[in-house]
Design brief:
Helix content: over 70%
Strand content: under 5%
Number of strands: 0
Number of helices: 17
Largest sheet: none
Order of helices and strands: HHHHHHHHHHHHHHHHH
Distance between the termini: 20 Å
Structural class: mainly alpha
Oligomer: single chain
Number of domains: 1
Length: 332
């Protein structure tokens, strides 16, 4: 346990990096416990830690992902029915791209290939909401129980949401052109060097896409952490406020980011006493129900299916938020 604790502190939480940033902040004549010094420490430490972890994790996950191209994933899901297929679809969503907009092309391909609609929606919900990188990053900022709880509830939303959509028989609510998209059966076999090149390119591509959101998220987190009084945050989003979860969900929907950009904000909110369920609801709304992704999804599904999808995921997020607010004391 001592070795695990040391590894968790030094490799995930990067305590060495925090100490280094503290030394640098003090060297330039600032007090890390002051508002300005604390803000600079929060910003530099979180940005550096997130980019280091992000690069390492994306490389490792992308290397694994190279063994699961869309054609192979489609074959794994093809022919399966029932709750087992939804579970498999949700699990496969954890090793695919990291934002909802990039998951929609795969959703189109799976639908065109004739996969059950409910299974494709389990995949579509899970892909941006839960990924293996999020487990490590959540653990680095919060704790392993919170990280595993987030992944568990995220998969649960994906499985239940996909199952309900499958039972509703809404196959006719998919845009007509999706059914006519050509589907390739080719399954490219990559060499080791090609997989390494693929993983490296994924790191560069994803970091290029998310760096502005990380900087913005860390900036907002630093402001909340060091400048906004805890009493103000508690008055708006305190654990005893029934409206905290709905407000966090509504605020998250217009934003376009991924879990990496929302983590610093979530870290600061929890530090100010906001309930764990409220923070989870915010993170899930941003990643699964962002307005840009809903606009893109509207291009491939008809309005009744879009409303159904949005409603199911929203109810799931609200339910999870209220439940986890009631049991926050078990995690923090």
């Amino acid at each position: 346990m001592n070795i695990f604790g040391w590894m968790n502190d030094q490799l995930l939480r990067m305590q060495w990096l925090s100490d280094l940033v503290t030394t640098v902040v003090q060297a330039v004549g600032l007090d890390p416990t002051s508002r300005i010094g604390g803000s600079i420490h929060f910003f530099v430490y979180d940005v550096a830690k997130i980019f280091i972890l992000l690069s390492v994790l994306i490389f490792a996950i992308s290397y694994v992902q190279s063994y699961f191209p869309p054609e192979r994933t489609r074959r794994i899901l093809g022919g399966r029915q029932g709750i087992g297929a939804n579970i498999l679809g949700a699990l496969l969503g954890t090793i695919t791209p990291f934002c909802s907009c990039s998951s929609i092309p795969l959703f189109i391909g799976f639908t065109a290939a004739g996969l059950p609609l409910g299974v494709t929606f389990s995949f579509l919900i899970s892909s941006p909401l839960v990924d293996m990188a999020s487990v490590i990053l959540l653990a680095s900022i919060f704790s392993w129980p919170i990280a595993l709880a987030y992944v568990g509830v995220g998969l649960l939303v994906a499985i239940i949401g996909g199952t309900i959509i499958g039972k509703l028989g809404m196959e006719g609510q998919v845009a007509d052109f999706v059914r006519n998209v050509p589907v390739s059966d080719a399954d490219e076999v990559l060499t080791r060097n090609e997989r390494i090149s693929f993983a490296r390119d994924q790191v560069m591509d994803i970091v290029h896409k998310v760096w502005p959101y990380i900087l913005i998220g860390v900036g907002i987190g630093a402001a909340i952490h060091n400048w906004v009084p805890a009493a103000t945050i508690s008055a708006l989003l305190g654990q005893d406020k029934w409206w905290a979860v709905p407000v966090a969900t509504v605020v998250g929907i217009p934003m376009y980011a991924d879990i990496f950009g929302t983590l610093p904000i979530a870290e600061a909110l929890v530090g100010k006493g906001v309930g764990l369920g409220t923070v989870l609801a915010f993170m899930m709304a941003v990643t699964a129900l962002s307005l840009p992704s809903l606009i893109m999804l509207k291009r491939v599904v008809k309005m009744p299916l879009l409303v159904t999808f949005t409603g199911i995921v929203t109810v799931g997020i609200l339910t999870i938020g209220f439940i986890f607010n009631a049991i926050t004391h078990l995690f923090i």
